[in-house]
Specification:
Chain A contains ten helices and 17 strands. Chain A has about 375 residues and is an alpha/beta fold. In chain B, the strands form four sheets. Chain B has a five-stranded antiparallel beta sheet, with helices on one face. Chain B has a five-stranded parallel beta sheet with strand order 9-13-14-3-15, sandwiched between helices. In chain B, strands 10-11-12 form a three-stranded antiparallel beta sheet. Chain B starts with a strand and ends with a strand. The chains are: A alpha/beta (about 375), B alpha/beta (about 775). Chain A: GO terms for molecular function: exonuclease activity.
Chain lengths: ~375, ~775
Amino acid sequence: MLTTFIHTGDFHLGRPFTFQQQGNYFGKNKRKELWKAFDDMIAYTKNERIPLVLIAGDVFDSVNVLTMDIKRVAEAFATLENTWVVIITGNHDYHGENSPYNKVQWSSNVYIFKEDVFRSIYIKELNTEIYGMSWVKNEYRAFPERSFNTIKLDHSRYNILMIHGEVANQSHYLPIDLKYIEGKGFDFIALGHIHKPGIAPGGVAYCGSPVPLNFGETGERGFLISLVEVDRETDNYVTSSGFYPIPSRKYETIQIEISPDDTYSNIIEKALSCETAENRKQNYYRIRFVGYINPEIQLDWVNDDLQESFYYIETDTSQLEPDIDLDKLILENENNPIGQFLEALGNIEDPEVRKKAIIYSIEAMVSEGVLK
Amino acid sequence: MIIKTLHLKAFGKFKDKTIGFEPGLNLVYGMNEAGKTTVQTFIQGMFFGFYKPYRKKKTYDIEYEKYLPWKQFDYSGSLIYEVDGREIRLERNFLRGKDSLNIFDNTTGKDISSEFRYDGVIRQHLPLDTLGMTSGIYNNTVNMRQLYNDTESGTQDEMRDSYLETQNTSGVEMNFKGIARCIEDKKKNIGRSGQSKSRVGAAIRERDELRTALKEAEEAYAKVAENQEQITLYQRRMKRIEAENDYLTQESVVNRKKELLQSYEKIKELEKENSLLSDKIEAGEVYREFNYETLEGLKTVQSQIERLSDQMDYIETEINNCHESLKAIRQKEESRRATLAGHTWERISEDYEAFKKEQNGSEDVKEKSNAIKSFISIILIILGIAFTEVSIMSLLPLGQSIENIMLGLGIMMMILGVVGTVFGAAKSLKKRKIRQARLLKPVQQGILKKYGLKDVGELDAFYKKASRTQSELEQMKNEGELISVQLSRHQAGYEVLFEQRRGIEKELDRKLGKYDVKTIAEYAEGCQKSQRLEEMKIQFNGNLRLLENLLQTVNDGKTADGNLVWKKASPKTDELLSMGKEIARLEGENNALSDGVGLPVEIRETIKSLDSQIEICDIEIKACNAVLDILEKIQQGCHLESAPELNQHIGDILNKITQHYKGVKIDEAMNVKVVEPANGDFKDAEQLSAGTMDQVYFAFRYGMGDVINQEMPFILDEPFVRYDKDRKTQALKLLAELSQKRQVILFTCDEDEENRLKALGATYTKVRL
């Protein structure tokens, strides 16, 4: 009889990360965090004697993940002597020609679905039947309905469905019609792929990524734990799921308003006062400067000046405008080379290049005394 | 600007040579080899030095070597020129390592170098910088060298820019150069930061290197992954085989273990036993020669001896018996002879004969009782009558035949009874007659007396007795003789046997002595020991063989009975072994592959960071380039607009000289094209005759100098060598005109120029070298 189980996935182990500076340093640390989350999950499973762990795809970030990483996972699972580990593959670690799952030996407590049709494994001691479908290529535009329709549940068992895909009408990543699959009467549906964890009533859940992977991924991360009980009156299974958070460095995006009166040191000060020193040294920060800046101030090196006060910082000045009325200037110099020049600058196609070109030119004209 | 005085302190062939110039036209006259070009080059050198332009490091021009004086200790000079009413003195040392330029106000003597822009590469101030003069522009406009027609490469832009600067006629001050310089500076500084950013060039280089490294790393790790997959495949197969084998051999393994254990114990036991045996064998080695065959031989000899002894014993007994018999016979003889009471048989016999002669006839009648005989005869008669009666009268119920037999029997019995009775009565009558005849004679009496006998009976008895004794004695005598013969035979035989035995015994002793024993029993004991020794040896060797086998077994996986249980039970051992080896090989290869190769993931991340840095820089650089581009386009626009004036101006000059060509076109690269008046076609200067080409360049320089910088002098070195007379005259006329506005310094070796100038009525200063 199944009492409790863990639902997790989307670890993206071995993932390369993008950082604007010292990519390999931050990337390495980030990968360590992924491993820490994985190890935490394993430790929890051991300590709490969880009998079943569901991995809903994308344990590995790529089919070309390092063999030592695959070994590490296999070895960790092998230590879970009293736990069944059931795995489906996802779009990142699909079980294709170069499958990471072929590269090492898995212990006998690990079951890996290896087909892109629905199959099941019945675990007698837990009276639990797990249905799952794995990815064997990197794109599925349709849900394998025919295969799904053949499923006949034995309701004396606890029935779990595992899918890695997107709840949507259309998707390149296995579109899932939630209503449709819920209709089958599974006791629990363990989904993977979407990195934001979410538990819906009726025993459907996205486990989410146990560690945020980029600035777009905010909020708490971890894995899901479900408790299974039998309702004595109706004799039905009752599943209650909860979230077990795993601490990790967060991604924070902070917007800072700049005004033309701000000096360079004002700007630095504003950036530093956005967070406590402790948090600054803990999390990943992206500071977005918005508003208007004195055209004589250059923010080219602001990142370098902030760097030592943060664990990681990147700055975004794309929404910051120089405080200068270009149109008016052009109008005033309509018939002279200055007007000609400024107009030509305004015609530069690439907006980022245009912006920089204007800033540089204005700076140069100011320093040469052409503009006062 | 007017060049006033040259002082060639040490330059080329000149030493402490001073040359003065005047405003207007200066005609510098000198024969060949007089040093005209040297002087011209001196002027250039005083202004710019002899350095290659556009270098990041100071590099000397070839002219440096060309004018280096013979005794290379000094290489210097000075030049005084006047500009804007101010007299400036340049003092330059050309000498490598000591090269320097000092700029003085010639009136006050004050060093005014710092008023001029400083060049960090040549580490000198630039005196003509304020006039917008670079060595390139100077050589293309101011300085017209001998037969040097080509525009100096790399200077077109400068010239164009210089020209365009002068053409900015708009009301707004637009310092294009200044803005461009600012942007250029900006561009240079992009990506330059002491902290985290590297210079963009370095970043790009690093990224390119990393891309190569990434490719290598990815290839290596792809191979590693491929190997790993193979390893896993092998491991799976091995596991399967092992499982099969396990299933097959579980019992065998247990047995095998038991057997091995037994083998070990057995080995231990055997080793112990053999160690004991080996001691014993060593000790028993003296009995090695003892053997049962010999023993049998010895025993045969012994039994021979015994047999001989037996025979001898027997003979000895016989001899003793003989002695005994002889003794007994003699004693018996004695006793027999005693019964004769000292009489000899012969005497007795004679006497008896004599007695009997006397008695002849008188016989003794013997009377015997016949009463019993008579009684039996009567019984027989009675019985016979009875039988006869019974049978005749058939008193008994018997058969006829039986009655007949009884009748016969009865008759016979009656006959016998009658005979018996008659015979008995006759006998009794005869006895009575013998007793009546007994009576003795004297001779007979004497004989009786002699022998102490009473009657004839006694004599008879005595005689009989003596006769018997006599025969006994005779028999005894015969016996004694026989025994004596036997005795002597026995004695002879005994001696022969004795000798035989002694020989054999000697031989036996010799044989025993050989084995160092005294008796056969001892030898037999030795034989037993020898046999034990043999047995021990056999056992020892057997043990050794067993040990060997056991050790082999233990080492080879054989059981004690020699079966290859292990192999039999694990039929795929070889495959396992080879897969194990293959795995080891692949793992080794993987180690080698990943050794020293960065992780692709990390390399990729570094590349990404560099990419983002480069991207930022790239945008900045693009922005700078875009600005510079725009600046250039605007300038070009200016050029295109003002070019017709330049073309017109130069065309006019050319027309004046040639009286033929008048249209020219200067393109953006400052190349001059000439319009052929006949058909209006453009011709490159190079396509014209040598003289005309010279004239085109003269016109170009003249005209350019006119428009770019009217302050600078115009210096010409033998420009008219290839001119015809008319064109030379026209050109000289132009120079004379020009000298009204600019100082002109014309170097020539031909007096023709002076003559023509005179003819033109031009004023000039003649300088002789």
